[in-house]
Amino acid sequence: MPKIKTHRASKKRFKITASGQFKFKHAYMRHILTKKSTKNKRYLRQKSILSKIYWSTVKKQLPYL
């Protein structure tokens, strides 16, 4: 059987933690930041853990992680 290709966009967006969870960077931090509150921008700066609902989808896209 041939190898399964890794979904390149997913590889760039998700990192796997030591406990097997996926972490990702929040969206909405690129431009038009003046109308966003400081509290919201501070929250968006942090990495976040992906919800368990999406784990199976991401695992299919990243077969060799």
TrEMBL record:
One of its GO terms (cellular component) is ribosome. InterPro entries: Ribosomal_bL35, Ribosomal_bL35-like, Ribosomal_bL35_CS, Ribosomal_bL35_sf. Keywords: Ribonucleoprotein, Ribosomal protein. PROSITE patterns: RIBOSOMAL_L35. Signal peptide: none annotated. Belongs to the bacterial ribosomal protein bL35 family. NCBIfam families: rpmI_bact. PANTHER family: 54S RIBOSOMAL PROTEIN BL35M (PTHR33343), LARGE RIBOSOMAL SUBUNIT PROTEIN BL35M (PTHR33343:SF1). This is Large ribosomal subunit protein bL35. It comes from Candidatus Blochmannia ocreatus (nom. nud.). The gene is rpmI.
